[in-house]
Amino acid sequence: MSSQRSRPRGPNRSTEAGGHGEELHLWEDVKKLLPSTLNTFNDSSSNVLAIRDQDKTMAEKKDKGKSQAITTEDYSKLDNLLRRGVKINEAAGQNLLAIIEQAKILKAVAQAKEQELEQSSSRSATQRIKDTVASTSVYDFDGAGDSPVPSPNPTSRGRINGPSSKGDRDSVPPNRDRTPAAKAGSVEPQSGTAAGIIRSKVTFAKEDEVAFKPKPINNEHTDWILGFVQEVRGEGKARRYKVLDAEPDEHGVKKDFRTSASSMIPIPKQGTVLPPLETGKTVLAMYPDSTTFYKAEVQGMAPDGKVNLKFEGDESLMQAVIRRYVVEYRG
Question: Where is the sequence biased in composition, kind Basic and acidic residues (predicted)?
Answer without folding.
Answer: 166-180
